[in-house]
Design brief:
With about 350 residues, the protein is of the alpha+beta class. Among the domains are: about 1-40 and about 305-345, no CATH class; about 185-280. About 70% of the residues lie in helices and about 5% in strands. It has eleven helices and four strands. The protein has helices at about 1-20, 20-40, 60-65, 80-90, 95-105, 105-110, 120-130, 150-205, 210-230, 230-280, 305-345, and strands at about 45-50, 130-135, 140-145, 290. The protein has a four-stranded antiparallel β-sheet.
């Protein structure tokens, strides 16, 4: 087996030596052609920003969370994987791309006619190809934009991370506004319910029932004293008051409990509504910028040396395959004649 491998390797070297002129000519030609073509490719420059998502961007949770302290809701708390993944769609959103299109007039810049079929799709695809948003292995988010102009690549990257605040805050403010409206309507309903309960309590109090427990204890003591003194008139008067309390006491207690629960719920809704108002009216940065983008002083594409090496290597391999096929075809008739001679012999 070892001898066979050596033989095959030696045969391959013999084959390459036999066709050395063609291999050398094609590889050298490919080297110069690929080098020339790589010079024609317009260089691109890239600017990259590195940022972290916060654990939460809710102002009310960050600033008004003293009673239920949670260190993960501090203003400096970094996001977990879930929050980081949630931020990626914002950076890849159509809103970001539309903002880039409008500010930098990208259809004209990329020479894309939007009135033609597939024009918008081609434009968004071009932006997507020039923009890279990914999560790093350490949980950060890398935002990169490339362009022929290094200053433009820097400006576009800066705009993307700046617009992230605007877009994410806009979405969160919209939800906070909806929550505020719901809570406001709920508070109006609770206030009407409390007013109705208070009216019912006032009607019961007109009958002289104010505090069932206290009045019952006082009347019981007075009734015992009147009975001990044999004061029948006082006993009848006290009994009448006790009957009134018995008639309206349960209703008063029920309304008072209901008013207490409604008041607690009203206070909770008011607190939540104030929280929603704070989230609705406050703009909070939604990211920690670790590395700001820089104006690139070196192109990242094309890699001319890599283009030349790969092109030359591919040309060499393709030439070897073609030459092997040519030699096989040339040797085929000889094999056929040889087989015929053996047959006649």
């Amino acid at each position: 087996m070892e001898n066979k491998d050596k033989y095959n390797a030696f045969s391959l070297l013999q084959f390459m030596w036999k066709w050395r002129k063609w291999l050398l000519i094609i590889c050298v030609a490919t080297f110069f052609v690929s080098a020339a073509c790589s010079l024609l490719v317009r260089p691109r420059y890239k600017s990259t920003a590195l940022l972290y998502a916060p654990r939460t961007s809710s102002v009310s949770k960050i600033l008004l969370n003293e009673q239920n302290y949670n260190e993960r809701l501090e203003i400096k708390a970094l996001a977990t994987v879930d929050e980081t993944e949630q931020m990626l769609p914002f950076l890849n959103s159509i809103a970001i791309k539309d903002s880039l299109i409008e500010k930098y007039n990208l259809p004209e810049y990329y020479n894309i006619q939007l009135d033609k079929k597939g024009g918008k799709t081609k434009l968004y695809k071009t932006i997507t190809n020039n923009m890279t948003v990914k999560r790093t292995e350490y949980g950060a988010i890398s935002v990169s934009l490339s362009d022929w102009d290094p200053q433009r690549a820097y400006d576009m990257t800066m705009d993307v991370i700046r617009w992230l605040d605007t877009i994410k805050n806009s979405v969160e403010h919209e939800r906070a506004l909806a929550a505020y409206t719901i809570l406001q309507n709920q508070m109006d309903s609770i206030e009407r319910a409390i007013a109705d309960v208070n009216d019912s309590i006032q009607e019961i109090m007109k009958h002289g029932v104010f505090d069932v427990k206290l009045q019952s204890e006082r009347l019981t003591q007075q009734y015992a004293i009147a009975a001990a003194q044999g004061n029948t008139a006082a006993m009848q008067r006290i009994q009448k008051e006790q009957d009134t309390i018995a008639k309206y006491g349960a209703q008063l207690t029920s309304y008072q409990d209901l008013e207490y629960n409604f008041s607690k719920y009203h206070a909770l809704c008011k607190q939540k509504m104030m929280d929603a108002k704070m989230d609705m009216t406050t703009i909070m940065p939604v990211k920690f910028v670790i590395d700001n983008p820089k104006v690139a002083d070196k192109k990242f594409y094309p890699k001319r040396s890599l283009i030349v090496v790969i092109s030359t290597l591919c040309a060499f391999i393709l030439t070897m395959i073609v030459l092997l096929m040519i030699e096989r075809v040339e040797n085929q008739p000889n094999r056929k004649d040889s087989a015929t001679d053996k047959l006649y012999q």
